[in-house]
Protein 1
Amino acid sequence: MKKIQLSLLACMLGLGGYAQTIEDIEILNARNLHGTGRYVAMGGAFLALGNDFSAMHQNPAASSVFRKNAMGFTFGFQGQTNQTQFLNNNQEYWDLHATFENFGLVAKFGPKDKYTFGFTIDKLADFNSDFTVLGDNVYQSTNPFTGQESGITLGEYWNQRSFGYTIGTLEYDGLMEEASAISSTLLLLDSVGGVATYDYYVDDASQVAYRFHEVGATNEYNFNFGIKSNKKLDIGFGLGIPHTEYQSRSTLTENGFADSSYIVAYDLQRDNYISSVGVNLKAGLIYRPYQFLRLAASIQTRTMNFVQQTYTTYVDAYSWDRVDYRGDVYEFDAIEYHAHTPAIYRAGLAFVLSKHVALSGEVEHTNPKKVNLSAKDGDNYEGEQDYYNSVTQSSTTVKSGAEFKVGNWYGRLGYQFRNSNFKNADLFYSDQSTYAFGIGYKNQDFGIDVTYSQSSYTQNQVVHPYLGSNTANAFNGDVIDIERALVQNDIRKGNLILGVQVSF
């Protein structure tokens, strides 16, 4: 088995259209409810309250509200339930992993501690997920709505797209799945080296297994400078450096062919690795016109992300006499490009009543249509960018929270609603709702918080275009029945987090 390097153009063609590109860009835009226990328990509605490490990455003025120097950290455990639908088959999968949520440090200085320096590391998004779906791929079934036939094997799909091609032509055109299928003997060549047929026979239906495994996170390093302008006004400025590390692996297995087949099963494996470092600027204020009322606003500039991406794919085939045929691994050169993700605007207010009750609300707005892609080596990304912009919409997040104090103990409730970045959420990501609650204890110099949150949303994923194609449309890669090619995944994430803070 050998590795074959491909150009950037072959990479873009080999991703199977724009779906993968959209998911890659969305990774850089992803935001979930993570942070300190207090912040999460109140739904992230902390723009106007301040005095919290996680609030500082949204509003740099939050650092100025701290009364003392402080340091804290938060960690947790996240359980995820995936309820999937695939080829008329419902399945459920659950996994659990530990999470880092936040680290924060605040130091006050200057006359009467007028100035504040703050540093935080905040988790913005967690990508860890693992699920497997199974289904029967019934051949030549008729779609009752379109009257078109669908249901072909992946091998047939490859054969239709590459018939008569040589392996060199396939590599040049970016059809690397088909090229790897030749080296695994799944596709057979004629006497002049062109693809002629496949090395198995179809039956009435095949069995498809699809496993998707992803790991990674986006964490942001924030450097804040806060100023207590007067008793009523706090202002702040910040520098954010988001860092994304993401890896995914999908394995598609198909078997259940006719007994006369030499090849009895094959695997298609696709790996995707993304590493990104970005930079943005932030500014915010908190204004107290009355003792009980706080108003706040902040802006985060567009984030310039420097992205490196690598994509590999290969096909392995297995015969009835237990011989394994390993296909060539097609590994793309590291793609380096810039992705400018959109600015974020926030406004909030809070009511602080008799030092025992705090009520807060916040609105956050961004527009994913403002994403801009540019390659470091001068390649043109206008097609990918235009398509992404055509399927996205402006997004608004609403947050609300409440905190009740009895002695040194605190009880908290929160809710957050984030509407989808996509016009057609059924094909991508749906709206996301999060409920949270928690308790805390704080004396003069020490505090501890325990919080639980649960988020729910739907994420749809294209397994492979062949599942929605047929022999008449496979050559052009057309998908005539998108629902057959989708995994619908209803996701519930439960996050139990623990945080501690010391003041000095």
Protein 2
Amino acid sequence: MKLHLKTCLILELLPPIVCAYVVSIFVGTDMICRNLLLQAQSNMQLDINSARLIYQKALDEMRGPLLLAATDPAIQNALRSGSPEPAETRMEKLRKTMNLDVLNLLDITGTVVVRSRTPSRRGDSLATDPMIRAIIEGQEIVTSTDVASSGELRHESDSLAQMASIPIVGKAGSSGTDSVEERGMLLKSSVAVKDNAGRLVGILYGARLLNRDGRIVDEIYQTVFKGEVYKGRQIGEATICLEDVRIATLLTKDGLRAVGTRVSPDVREQVIIRGQPWIGRASVVGEWHLTAYEPIRNLSGDVVGALGLGILESKLTDIRHETLTVFLLITLGGVLLSFVLATLMARSVTVSIRKLLRTVQAVADGNLDCQADTESSVCEIAELGRHINRMTLSLKERALVMAEGPTIEADNLLFYGPTIARACAPGNTPDGIATTAPASSPCAGGANDVGQLARMEMWEISAALKKFDGQMARAAEYLGINRKTLREKMHRYGLNQD
């Protein structure tokens, strides 16, 4: 099947355009997805850093009030006099003012002198506590996260033990209650109580229970996510875990904060078991989030829990889809523009070719005054036009030379028409052609056999020799061949110089 040049050019240009489009889709999609994920993970790293600072700030905020309370006259007098009763009321007031769940006064051996929440329970020793031991050994203040057993919490207060108790929802993704978490995670701080001489006379010990306490996670959410809501839901979540159990969180389940749920097994393995940070995709209460977790360590450096936050993956997915849609539309627009430009370029080329074709057809029909366009923007087409014009000029010059008068006749053009017919007509041989040509001579056949071109050539050679009175040099120059070739052709056709 024959096709137009324009169609051929478009079909030639179309595969590279389509291939470029397909490659750009695959490469661009991969780059967009990877860059969005890397950007999201980078943002999560910054966010978890902010969350850690907020958590550390909550620890540091315990220091100032405790240091100030250590100078309180009632506490100083209770340690000097050995009579704790006057200090009990004062310490309970200080505990509530400082928003603490535990505030105890100990002597220099670590024995409890005043337990503000339950004054009747005193006399037990806390000397084995690493934080108390650090103060006894000479440190001024020690602050850290710690985990208290259910017995330790009950000894402080029955109500405190009840506050810490959290039913644990089974393994990640399951339902039902497997057990109860009765331990409590505490922000703890101990400060040295000294007399006017700078001698250690006691220890003031305070703690804040994190179980079910949403103040830190709420502050993290407001600081990191600015309270943003996405499609009617909180865009992110913040969580404090005791080991792998959420004890304080913004996550909701059935309208309530999802305390007691577990982090995913992958997060537990990475953060709790190995003690390494986690940034990645994780299932959170049945929904996928992009999450970041960091281990929480006690004073001894052991992992006791995790601080985490996450953002709804659905938002990241929507952002990715929107970005890909814009990218694909832009790419498709580029392809369409390329196709339009290719069509215009093909049209420009074919228009120039058609002009040359019309010129050649006109010359073939005998119009030697027709000129080809040489102003094309395509160098090769412009060059072809110049050669056509040179060819036309040469034909015209030859016709003028061959003309016997001032008018150019059709036979003077030497086209495949009357000239051949006249050249091969019986008895119509030019002057000087041997009349006894052998049977192999080009003029031996009819006017329509394959020797037509040879007979035309014979006629031209004869005419040129006649025109230049047998001067072979001038005839050869006129015919555009050298003398040797002219001599060989004369011998072949049985022509003589005269």
